[in-house]
Amino acid sequence: MFEFLKSHMENIFQAIHAFESSVGCFVNALLIYVVLTKSPKQIQGYGLLIINFAVTDFLICVLNYMLMQRLIICGFAVIYISMGPCSKISTQLCFTIYVTKLHLYTHSIWLLLISFLYRYYVMIRSELSKYKIQFIIFLFYLPSLLSMGNIFISDGSEKEAREVLTECHPDYNITNRAVTGNISYLDVGAIYVVIHIVGMSIPIAIMIWIMRRKIIAKLGSNASSERSKRLQLQLLKALTFQSCIPIFYVLGSSGFAVQQFNIINNAAPQYIMYCVFILVPVLNPFSSFIFITPYRKYVISLFDRKSYKISVTQTTTQLNSSAINQSQSLSKH
């Protein structure tokens, strides 16, 4: 069994990437449609933030399918082997897709903070116009955009990446593979990215926790209607659930750590890391589907309609079968 898994590991993880990416694309596309068509007037401003989340997560899932990446640590070098469709086109395309996907991950974290800040702002002031919301999102997008440029600067050539990987793992077959990488994550560009992704996650998490407490306190003292309070509480629950999902970034990063410190330095953590990361954009839409009532009711109605159609079809089939049997029985008599 172990030998079978070892020999077919690449195919297995390609299948996992394809499944996760497909599910992620579907649920995020569904969320975009639901927000555009089923949002109550009271949360249309916040709906714009949800759409930004969903579009970001949808793009991450598409790019993940194109990449299907494996990450290998070799000393201070980070090497990427892409197994997805981009590897059939060009190595540079794979690296460009990877950098784009990574900066979308960081933008998603900033969007979560914006969502908490916006919910509190609405409770003490009023809804912002869609143009102002988009402008704020753009301002928070700039650090992620800068990180994308820094990764490109710190990128090593394909030849260097292949040489480092061959020296580190001479037994790996990298013939006709898309091999890219950062030769050293200690240079200025790479350090900025590490600080942005890892370092900024902690203060952002603290800020989210502070804003959540402020929103709860405001809900208790707010003199608005019970209906409005229930809606605000639904949004808070959705955001709280969503703020827990990035724990998969921590779990995925363990694949980096166990390689860096030579705890486990084989194919398993190299393949698993990005399979875990992609769970974040796949699960994000469920925070809205579960906790925001208008969205939840619509999604449930879709399944109810499908169950109803299946039930009607089965009943019709049974009735037709019964009628045929009775007809045959009568003809015999």
UniProtKB/TrEMBL annotation:
Belongs to the nematode receptor-like protein srd family. Its main location: membrane. This is G-protein coupled receptors family 1 profile domain-containing protein. Residues 27-291 form the G-protein coupled receptors family 1 profile domain. The keyword Iron-sulfur does not apply. It is found in: Membrane. It comes from the Eukaryota. One of its GO terms (cellular component) is membrane. It comes from Caenorhabditis angaria.
